[in-house]
Amino acid sequence: MSKIAIVYWSGTGNTEAMANAVLEGVQSAGAEGSMFTASEFSAEMMDSFDAIAFGCPSMGAEELEDSEFAPMFEACVSKLSGKKIALFGSYGWGDGEWMRNWEETCKNDGADLACDFVICNDAPDSEAIAACQALGKALV
After folding, report:
1. Residue from 31, 21, 25 nearest 1 by CA
2. Most CB atoms closer than 10 Å: which of 61, 81, 96, 139?
3. Where are the alpha helices (DSSP H) in 1-140?
């Protein structure tokens, strides 16, 4: 059975709701899913999982949250090469530039992106929830 980690940071609950939908997708595809906040996950844990979904909202000038998520993710970068991952997150302004930049960074670091990223403006609607569930299934 595949082991999938869902690692996220959420300030308002929107990205957490997306993470829960990713977990539903992972479990419905028959894999074991484990959810972690950014402060609960570390680079040392990456080898314990077959795939990882990373979720972070857009912060500031369309960037990753910088106090917990970005430092954790930066520590994981050296383990991205060949690792199956997927990206998701919510935003309140802008056009998704933070996610496009994040995806490009992951590709440049050799990550195997299982599917297109999923973003939503503010709280996830039914379409965003379905996309997150599909993201979870794509990781299995």
Report:
1. 31
2. 139
3. 14-28, 69-76, 97-108, 126-139
